[in-house]
Every structure is written in structure tokens, then in C-alpha cells.
Amino acid sequence: MAVRNALLKYLRVDVNPALAIRTTGGGLSQLIKRCYSEEARGTFLDKSEVADRVIGVVKKFQKVEPSKVTPNAHFQNDLGLDSLDAVEIVMALEEEFGFEIPDDEADKINSIKMAVDFIASHPQAK
After folding, report:
1. pLDDT of 36 above 60
2. Within this chain, do residues 72 and 93 fall inside the same structural domain, yes or no?
3. Taking Cα atoms as reference points, which of 14, 47, 46 lies closest to residue 116?
4. Residue ranges of the alpha helices (H) in 1-126?
5. Same domain, yes or no, for 51 and 26?
6. Both 10 and 72 in a single domain?
7. What CATH number does residue 71 fall under?
8. Cβ 20 vs Cβ 28: under 8 Å
9. Which residue has the higher pLDDT, 67 or 40?
10. What is the pTM of this model?
11. Above 50 in pLDDT, residue 31?
């Protein structure tokens, strides 16, 4: 239910009733263009920029050996972090990108690649 509500929050678009009712001048096509415009969907960050920033955050983490950090590094297997450390990294990523990652999604983020994929696809990431 929480995921559904979160998705609906991002998918809602204000509709001008006058635009939807008007039949001349391509009213419906204008409405469709509005719904699928860049503004309605949100602006997504470039994946390479996200990767650089995520790697930078992970390298700054006190318990991580910076030389071990790679784009495919797994938090536990490659960097030797425990689950609490992974939570702290996710919190640092939330601060870096300016949005809150839902707990159910945060639990799934266990590598740099997964963090990059999630953040790059999130419209609130800054």
C-alpha cells in the first residue's frame, strides 16, 4: 500500500478541465502531451553523475578502504560492511541526493550498482 501511494504521488498530474473538454485545436493531444512532458515525469539525473557521487559517498565512509570501492562493489562481500553499515551508507546517500529512500527499498540496496540504479531512476533525486 505504501509503495502504491508513493507511486501515485509521483504520477498525479493536474488536469485543466477546460482543456480536456475542448474538442477543437487538439485538446486531447495537448492533454496527453502535458501528461507525458518532462515536467510531469520529473527530471532524472545522469547515471554516470549518480555513480560518481555514490562512489564518492562510499569512499568517505569511515569503515571503507577507498581503494576497494568500484562501481560493482558489494557492501558486505567486497567492502566488508555489516547491515548496520549499509544502513548508514543509505542514510548518507539520502543526504547527498536530497530525498528519503523508503525502508523497503533501502533494505534491497546492498551494492553500489543497486544504489546507482535506484537513485538514477528516482525523480526526486537532486
Report:
1. no
2. yes
3. 47
4. 2-11, 17-21, 27-35, 38-41, 47-60, 83-97, 103-106, 112-120
5. no
6. no
7. 1.10.1200.10
8. yes
9. 67
10. 0.64
11. no
Query: Same domain for 34 and 65?
Result: no
Pair 55, 114 in one domain = yes
| Annotated catalytic residue within 46, 78, 82, 104 | 82
Confirm whether 65 is domain-assigned: yes
Cell readout for 67 is: 581503494
Query: Are 75 and 26 contained in the same domain?
Result: no
Cell, residue 93: 546517500
The residue count of the chain comes to 126
Q: Are 37 and 56 found together in one domain?
A: no
For 37, the domain range is 2-41
* pLDDT interval class at 19 (50, 70, 90): very low
Say if residues 119 and 50 touch (Cβ distance below 8 Å): yes
Stretch 91-114: mean pLDDT? 91
Locus of grid cell 493531444: 29
Residue 52 annotated in active site: no
**Sign of dihedral through CA atoms 96, 48, 106, 69?**
negative
Query: How would residue 26 be classed by pLDDT, with cut points 50, 70 and 90?
Result: low
pLDDT at res. 46: 84
